[in-house]
């Protein structure tokens, strides 16, 4: 099983509609919140990560299983 624990500053990528997107982990989300107007159903048992997208500078949230650690 892959390591699905990420820390602030980790460089990650994920599949997007236009190929692979890249960004930097800003924080681990462990409670329900909103990111850019979208509900994020994070919890202690199922955390998600707020990521700053490299290309746009916007924040997004993803589950750890959608992320892949990249070289910095």
From TrEMBL:
<dbReference type="InterPro" id="IPR021331">
    <property type="entry name" value="Hva1_TUDOR"/>
</dbReference>
<feature type="compositionally biased region" description="Basic and acidic residues">
    <location>
        <begin position="1"/>
        <end position="11"/>
    </location>
</feature>
<feature type="domain" description="Hypervirulence associated protein TUDOR">
    <location>
        <begin position="9"/>
        <end position="67"/>
    </location>
</feature>
<protein>
    <submittedName>
        <fullName>DUF2945 domain-containing protein</fullName>
    </submittedName>
</protein>
<feature type="compositionally biased region" description="Basic and acidic residues">
    <location>
        <begin position="47"/>
        <end position="72"/>
    </location>
</feature>
<dbReference type="Pfam" id="PF11160">
    <property type="entry name" value="Hva1_TUDOR"/>
</dbReference>
<feature type="region of interest" description="Disordered">
    <location>
        <begin position="1"/>
        <end position="72"/>
    </location>
</feature>
<feature type="compositionally biased region" description="Basic and acidic residues">
    <location>
        <begin position="24"/>
        <end position="34"/>
    </location>
</feature>
């Amino acid at each position: 099983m892959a390591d699905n624990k990420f820390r602030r500053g980790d460089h990650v990528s994920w599949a997007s509609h236009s190929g692979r997107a890249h960004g930097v982990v800003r924080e681990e989300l462990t409670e329900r919140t909103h990111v850019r107007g979208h509900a994020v159903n994070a919890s202690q048992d199922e955390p998600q990560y707020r990521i700053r997208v490299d290309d746009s500078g916007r924040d997004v949230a993803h589950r750890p299983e959608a992320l892949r650690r990249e070289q910095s």
